Amino acid sequence: MAFFKRKVHFNDDLGFGSNPVTKNQRMLNPDGSANIERTGLPWFKFDDTYTRLVTMSWPRFFFVILLAYLIVNTIFAVLYNVVGIENLEGAKGVTLRDQFFDAFFFSAQTISTVGYGHISPQGFVTSILAAFESMLGLLAFALATGLLYGRFSRPTSKVSFSKKMVIAPYEKGHGLMCRLVNLRRNQLIEVEVQMVMSYNETVDGKHVRKFYPLTLERNKIGILSLNWTLVHPITEESPFFEKSLTELQHAEVEVFVILKAFDDTFSQTIHTRTSYQDEEIEMDARFEKMYYHNEEGKMVMDYSKLDKVTRTV
């Protein structure tokens, strides 16, 4: 059964192919990442290491750095013990455990070029090993510094979208709405938004995925200083016209919101996106106002109301 009763113009693809969605699996996660499980790729790719280290979460990044630091110092501690702990002047450990930790902490001092002087290398082989480790430490810390700079300097978006879309009264009819706001204090200028609906449909007995661009009341603003409520007017030309939630769920509807803006802090263009499934669309509701004027007449934004809605019936 066709979702549309009239002939309309569709986008053939949005980069997700035309395979239908099954079991109401979303195509785009709320954080903007594609909901795709990738197989057949190698577990580790050396040329992709920088990208993974720059894009992974901060806790995971610090865990990787700490783990690498411990592994390297452990390896050199073992090497110092293999060469002979007696070649580390000042090492007073008697048991194997104490000797290992003497070598481990000497390695930590050497790789960071701190060199407290409590323990020092003696002999040609041990000195060569310590010199090599100090050189490795300079390169490693330079690399770690570059990674930290890359993570801090990488332009990222802190635009937050409402958790739900609503179908609320708009002008003489209704409109499909979602809301977004910039969580940073910087300015986003030349902000552009696209809204695309995706749904399953049967064409000539074959299930396919269709994409339909939704017309917005306004798809571009000069400066995002307050919140922005995106409105798709539900007219007779809208795919949501006279559609119930049951019909939307049957077609496994998903709405994509794609944003592009210029960040004046980084002087670069940033991108962000999200999606809403049919179960995240609420009928007969409207968003509560997020801003108001205080006693001094100054505009105040209440970010806690981003997801606040009220019933209209």
Order of helices and strands: HHEHEHEEEEEEEHEEEEEEE
Query: Which parts are unreliable, with pLDDT below 50 for 5 consecutive residues or more?
Result: none
> What's the CATH C level of the largest domain?
Mainly Beta
pLDDT averaged residue by residue: 86
Shape: elongated
> Cα-atom Rg, whole angstroms?
29 Å
CATH homologous superfamily grouping of the largest domain: G protein-activated inward rectifier potassium channel 1
Q: What count of domains describes the coordinates? A: 2
Q: Based on the structure given, which CATH architecture of the largest domain is correct?
A: Sandwich
Strand content: 25-35%
Largest sheet: 5 strands, mixed
> Total strand count, please?
16
| Sheet/helix structural class | alpha+beta
CATH topology of the largest domain: Immunoglobulin-like
Number of helices: 5
